[in-house]
């Protein structure tokens, strides 16, 4: 009986491989008398399946009492920039459209998501940031691309990793 449980835990652990973000900084955009100010926050994360790629996301963060308590619904405004920061190495294969990063944007139903695609023809990794909501998502999005060029000192481009 332990084997099915162990298999389920290992499967769940593999499904939770999305990156964790590190806050780089923020700027206030509107003063609030009570609670935190409204902000634009910049966070960074490394792609969990592709070594040598780092992404920076800027996003709006609601302040005030609701925002300070984690009850506010943040807007869908976000921007992304990903760059090659070292030799690119694919740790494991991935599917196009696979989630790289996710973060809650409201108490229950809204999430900010970053997904990855491989443009094989142009030898480029493409990252898309958007937000979704259970009932009605937002078309607001931002995209960035990282060319798969050899890093100085590395031998060659990585093998195609898409399954």
From TrEMBL:
Keyword check for Transport: no
Cellular component terms (Gene Ontology): cytosol
Keywords: Signal
InterPro entries: Uncharacterised_CreA
Top-level taxon in the UniProt lineage: Bacteria
Signal peptide: 1-21
The protein's name: CreA protein
